[in-house]
Amino acid sequence: MANDQATSDASPSGLATVAAEALSPSLIAEISRIPTPEESTESMAQEQFDADLIVIGSGPGGYHAAIRAAQLGASVICVEREYLGGTCLNWGCIPSKAMIAATERLHHVKHAGDFGVVIEGEIKFDFPKMMAKHKEKVVLAERGGIGMLFKKNKIRHVEGFAKFTDPHTISVDKDGNKQSLRGKKFVLAMGSSVIRLNIPGLENTGREDGVWTSDDAVTAPFVPEKMLVLGGGAVGCEFSFVFNGLGSEVHLLEMMPNLLPVMDTDLGTELGKLLTRQGVKVKTGASLERAERTANGWKCTVKRGTETEEIEVNVILLGVGRKAATEGVGLEEIGVKLHRRGVEIADDTMITHVPHIWAIGDVTGRIQLAHTAMHEGIVAAHNAVQGTQKRINFKAVPNAVYTSPEVASVGLTEGEAKEKGYDVVVGRSKFMIFGKAMATKETDGFVKVVADRKYGELLGVHMLGAHVTDMIHEAVVAINLEATLESLADSIHAHPTMSEAVLEAVEDALGHAIHKL
Ligand code: FAD
């Protein structure tokens, strides 16, 4: 009998009895109402759902989540209020790169003589054609491609604005026509949208006033004669490169001491010099104090330290500021927590505080990059469909800027590595000494590697030069696999390539660069 008692107390129900003694009757009653996992699965199975997974938003995060979930066997609906492909395809990565590519072609043709290629007559460009024939064609083709992928994967594309009416139901509004859709699980992929800054003089202004956002820049009706670009991050630098290359007088303003303030300082400093050489008037440590209307645009008061300068331009391009698209979606009403910049996720599995809802990409207000959104979408789809707990590895997220020359980096900056307490060793190499760079006349820029001196672990790689946004992935893989300087130095790099500069920088960190004088 005594033995029986001991066995019973050690059993789960026995433990529950002991624990229950410490609980208040009201709490016990509340707990007893919570269904067991078996009960909830049963009641879910009896409920009618339109899909196993509803993805809200079809940007890079949303469409990757939708396709992977369908590949894993789930029935999937993707709701989109505007165009398939989201910001990235319609107003971000792709149209801006199409504009950059066109600007680069113009530059190459203008400088073809350096290679002995004779082009006679005036070299001109047709901006409306550039936008309609090239940029718009690329966007439309890619948009159609996503539609085809949805069809192939039997994903239902529902047009309209989604709003939660209860934790498993959304109402989708398309031009006033509403339909209700029930999902077993959800992925929030609503992304972000542009915001207008509260600068004195620019209140309640828009595209028609000559105050552009990035959405206006990728649909620009003309090349302004003079423009002020606010923000020296990736977006501001890329548009400065484009409009300067097309003939605008561009003033690029950045509040921090360097362009690209989130990247290794050497990158922003060098890009500042190269953009200046191209003709961009780069002003770092500078802010736009106020703007006043003029007959042809804006008189901008720019403050730089103790000095103030007045700059007259036709267009002000706001290259900073996006906000998560959470408004009107009814998230807080169903228990999804928000923070200042977007949807709060509970952990790196991308789950929110509601157990059947995940959030990915820009809407989480964390890293605002298309490739991160894609990867998060894939991880969230696995977790939602297969019940796994996959987590994102944020150690090796590449960051790329598509100016010419390009900028790319991954891992820790030199400053961050030092702050984290590493005994840091740095290796450098310049493209100018390599045959491929000389042959293509793409000699600007460098590679910088940051490593831990003790074990040689590669911590960060930072590059500026032609094609570096394609070259960075050697470093992404190396950092992901915790490679050492030695293992990279033992990897044969093809000759002649720009990637030889990576090998040389690694050799430099090891103290034996071949091409160092
Ligand atoms: P988004 O792409 O914003 O897509 C969200 C979608 O959800 C949208 O289509 C929206 O219409 C839809 N939606 C929102 N709310 C609802 C709702 N309630 N119901 C239905 N649909 C809804 N990143 C890079 O990695 N590389 C680059 O080169 C790059 N260049 C950029 C250039 C510019 C000019 C800009 C502005 C951004 C750039 N980015 C770049 C950032 C990149 O575009 C974003 O990080 C990326 O688009 C985020 O993807 P997402 O899927 O989270 O959201």
What does this entry look like structurally?
It contains 18 helices and 24 strands. By secondary structure, the protein is α/β, with parallel strands linked by helices. The strands form 6 sheets. Strands 1, 2, 3, 4, 5, 6 and 19 form a 7-stranded mixed sheet that branches. Helix 5 (60-71) packs parallel to helix 12 (370-386), helix 7 packs across helix 8 (127-152) and helix 7 (93-110) packs parallel to helix 10 (234-245). The model is unreliable at 1-23 and 27-45 (pLDDT under 50). The structure holds flavin-adenine dinucleotide. Flavin-adenine dinucleotide is lined by residues 56-62, 79-82, 86-88, 91-93, 96, 161-162, 189-192, 214, 235, 325, 329, 361-363, 368-371, 373, 402.
Low-confidence stretches: 1-23, 27-45
- Count of helical stretches: 18
Structural class: alpha/beta
Shape: globular
What is the CA-CA span between the terminal residues?
89 Å
- Record field, number of beta strands: 24
Proportion of helical residues: 25-40%
Strand content range: 15-25%
What would you say about this model in short?
With 517 residues, the protein is α/β, with parallel strands linked by helices. It has 18 helices and 24 strands. Strands 1, 2, 3, 4, 5, 6 and 19 form a seven-stranded mixed beta sheet that branches. It has a five-stranded parallel beta sheet with strand order 8-15-9-10-11. Strands 20-21-24-23-22 form a five-stranded antiparallel beta sheet, with helices on both faces.
